Amino acid sequence: DGGITQSPKYLFRKEGQNVTLSCEQNLNHDAMYWYRQDPGQGLRLIYYSQIVNDFQKGDIAEGYSVSREKKESFPLTVTSAQKNPTAFYLCASSIGDTQYFGPGTRLLVL
Amino acid sequence: KQEVTQIPAALSVPEGENLVLNCSFTDSAIYNLQWFRQDPGKGLTSLLLIQSSQREQTSGRLNASLDKSSGRSTLYIAASQPGDSATYLCAVRLDTNAGKSTFGDGTTLTVKP
User: Fold this and answer.
1) Which of A81, A87, B27, B90 suits a disulfide with A63, CB 3.0-4.6 Å?
2) In this complex, do B43 and A40 lie within 8 Å of one another by their Cβ atoms?
3) SS3 helix, strand, coil % of chain A, rounded to 5?
4) Which residues of chain A are within 8 Å of residue B42 when distances are taken between CB atoms?
């Protein structure tokens, strides 16, 4: 089956710890995105990548980092600089005008 | 800066009713507008995409309209069913770069049997 997978489904972070969220797609899409969703709110763009080895900051990039070494993978690291990381994180990819979303990772702080 | 508003934040209707969800945006120079469905704790599923040159799109019981000049889009759901219960989000893109999409906060729909 073609699609986008995110892992883990739930992730717990301790104070001062960096954590990495995985996003993999087998749709052969060039563009990939990371969004953050807080309760009762829409999505806010963290980072996006339109091609391998290139990525751009979105609206709320501070405290996050990404890499795009392979077309199918776009991991997101939540660094210790992100002081309020508790949220639902969604990865997406696109070809043409439509975005396709993964199932999400819920990040909680211990 | 583009702002996207969805009203109401929540809506509850009896099964079988026709309903309209609203999406308004401040910058009318959009590239396209997309409606998504989100089930609790899940990712987003694309429902309908309207290009800036189009007035409406239809898929089954769903119909989305776009009025750029007034900065509005509506999602019409006919003969609602309990399975339609979900949060509906609209996203507006200003140009060909999909990374420039702005999302509304969504309308949470409950369809009662």
Assistant:
1) A81
2) no
3) 0, 55, 45
4) 103-104
